[in-house]
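lol forgot to send this yesterday, sorry. struct tokens for the thing we talked abt
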């Protein structure tokens, strides 16, 4: 009888996008290729990517560096607000700033996001059926990565905010049967040369 086995969830933000977010920049394409090269020995069995062009293009360039790993578009890997906190949940000194920031996002992303986020947890997290570990990559956006890392750490739901992932950086979470989730590493940019690190961050945080 089959049991359960660990899942290794690899999370990558798309490569650097153009100003209108319709495609990757030259830097973004190079980032995606380098990430794909890093993942060649990772035993990936599947790649899921959000439907927006910058995520789809990143996933395609990663796939070109791998051998026969299927890529599948997924609305659950899209760009949306995963959770809308109430003021009482937030630190009093930052509540106004956080709520003002959330109000700037399109209503569709705020209204539909929480249900998509719930489904994403069901789809992408937890141990897997069978006897063999499963390694999966989700090419997505900053918000969903923050949401999944927050969940793995059992942090308050609003703490997806404040986590910022660099373009084409890599995080990995392990879900082992009968154990809490483990964040093995977060926002790793070791595969990127210095000039390609920290894109997607505010200018004052770039090193």
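and heres what i got for the seq, position by position
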């Amino acid at each position: 009888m089959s049991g359960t086995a660990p899942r290794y969830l690899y999370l990558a933000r798309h490569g650097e996008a153009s100003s209108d977010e319709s495609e990757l920049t030259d830097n973004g394409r190079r980032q995606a290729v380098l990430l794909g090269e890093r993942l060649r020995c990772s035993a990936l069995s599947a790649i899921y990517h959000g439907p927006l062009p910058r995520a789809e293009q990143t996933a395609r360039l990663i796939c070109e560096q791998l051998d026969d790993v299927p890529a599948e578009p997924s609305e659950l890997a899209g760009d949306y607000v995963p959770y809308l906190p109430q003021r009482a949940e937030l630190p009093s000194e930052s509540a106004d700033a956080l709520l003002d920031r959330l109000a700037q996002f399109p209503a569709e992303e705020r209204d539909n996001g929480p249900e998509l986020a719930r489904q994403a947890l069901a789809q992408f997290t937890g141990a897997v059926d069978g006897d063999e570990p499963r390694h999966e990559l989700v090419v997505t956006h900053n918000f969903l990565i923050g949401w999944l890392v927050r969940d793995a750490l059992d942090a308050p739901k609003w703490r997806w905010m404040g986590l910022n992932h660099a373009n084409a950086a890599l995080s990995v979470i392990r879900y082992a049967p009968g154990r809490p989730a483990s964040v093995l590493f977060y926002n790793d940019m070791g595969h990127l040369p210095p000039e390609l690190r920290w894109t997607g961050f505010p200018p004052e945080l770039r090193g």
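The radius of gyration is 17 Å. anyway ping me if u want another try
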